[in-house]
Amino acid sequence: MKNPMINSQSGISAVEMLIVVAVIIILTAFAVAQFGNSSANLDRQNIAREFKVVLERARFDSVKRRPGTCAEMSMVVVNSASRFTLLSDTNQNGVLEPALESRITDFTGRSNVRIIGDGITYPINFRFDHRGNATSGDCSSPTPVVATTTFCNMPCATATADGTNSSIVFVSPTGTASMLYGGTSTPTFSNPSVSNVNSNIQVNPMLAVFDPESPSSSPSPSPSGSVEPLPSTTIDPLPTVEPLPTVEPLPTAEPSPSASPSPSPSASATPTPLPACVWGQRPGNPATCVCLEPMWIRASGKCQ
Q1: Among 122, 128, 144, 131, residue whose Cα is nearest residue 70
Q2: Which of 141, 117, 132, 149 is CA-nearest to residue 75?
Q3: 198 is a domain residue
Q4: Is 119 left (phi over 0), alpha (psi -120 to 50) or beta?
Q5: Do 168 and 295 share a domain, yes or no?
Q6: pLDDT bucket at 264, cuts 50 / 70 / 90
Q7: CB 51, CB 151: distance < 8 Å
Q8: Is residue 131 one of the residues assigned to a domain?
Q9: Main-chain phi, psi angles of 147, to 5 degrees
């Protein structure tokens, strides 16, 4: 009896091929779409981050220079929906020069990102004083600023801006700038509540107030009695002075004898210095020369 031979068959059918191709196309389309959104998100976040950085630079420059007037404060101006300008003392001469020190950032041709908002009127000013506090408006009437600047990928509106297509830069009244996701509710600031503490309430039972009694000074005695005025006396006129007698001319003094001049000391004779001895010369006695170094008088009596 012969065993039947099993022939193995391998391969794929056309239906399986179509299924695999369809899955690859779907995954590729999804990846391309996500990559495109990522690029747009990165562009938007970079622009928003640049705006946050220029706000921090303007604030730091004002705190460093400590301007005294509004015109000297560093500032950031939002000129339009796609342009903002930084004005700070870049050359460090202590004076703001808008014609030379303005740094303009224009992202019109970079991407489709724009600044959006309801009722926005350009330009928008962000000024920083010597303490770093942020103000807005003109110098004639500055107002504290609590502002949000929304950067959104167009087409976009305030109602449709969310975390997927927008970024927010928030500026607090103290001048600090923070970057938030789109659609995030901005924080609100109010005056802190102050509670009154009665004076008879002991806040810390371990605390004791030391209040020593100050020494009482004795009262100064008050003057007693009234002072009687002194009696006024009338001064009689002084007697008339008789004219003094005429002084006779004094006798002339005889000339006093003049002192005889003392004799001046005579100068003593100065000895003549001896010359230096030459090689092999005897100084002699009395000496006729002086033996100088590096030579000296040998046992023979010669200067060598």
Answers
A1: 128
A2: 132
A3: no
A4: left
A5: no
A6: low
A7: yes
A8: yes
A9: -125, 150
Distances from the Cα of 78 to the Cαs of 71, 83, 262, in angstroms? Answer: 17, 6, 105
Question: Per the domain annotation, does 74 fall within a domain?
Answer: yes
Asked whether residue 240 is assigned to any structural domain, the reply reads: no
Sheet holding 124-128, edge to edge: 102-106, 83-87, 75-80, 124-128, 134-136, 143-144
Counting other chains too, the contacts that 41-44 makes at CB distance below 8 Å and 24 or more residues apart are 41/153, 41/164, 43/110, 43/111, 43/113, 44/111, 44/113, 44/151, 44/152, 44/153, 44/165, 44/166, 44/167
Q: Cα separation of 87 and 105, whole Å?
A: 12
pLDDT digits (tens, 9 = 90+) for 217-249: 555 555 555 555 555 555 555 555 555 555 555
Token pair 């091929």 in the structure block, residue: 17
Per DSSP, the three-state class of 171 is strand
The 10s digit of each residue's pLDDT in 82-102 is 999 999 999 988 889 999 999
Residue 48: predicted pLDDT: 96
Question: Domain residues for 85?
Answer: 14-181
Helix (H) or strand (E) holding 80: strand 75-80
Select from 155, 181, 207 the last residue of a domain. 181
Average pLDDT estimate for 202-223: 62
Return the pLDDT at 77.
95
The one-letter code for the residue type at 207 is: L
This prediction has a pTM of 0.54
What is the DSSP annotation of 129-167? -TT--EEES-TTS-EE--EEEEEEESS--TTT--TTTEE
Last residue in a domain, options 146, 181, 216 = 181
CA distance 63 to 65: 6
pLDDT given for residue 153 in this prediction: 94
Percent over 90 (pLDDT), the chain:
35
User: Are 176 and 304 in a shared domain?
Assistant: no
Domain count, the chain: 2
Is the pLDDT score of 137 beyond 90?
no
Specify whether 157 is located in the same domain as 301: no
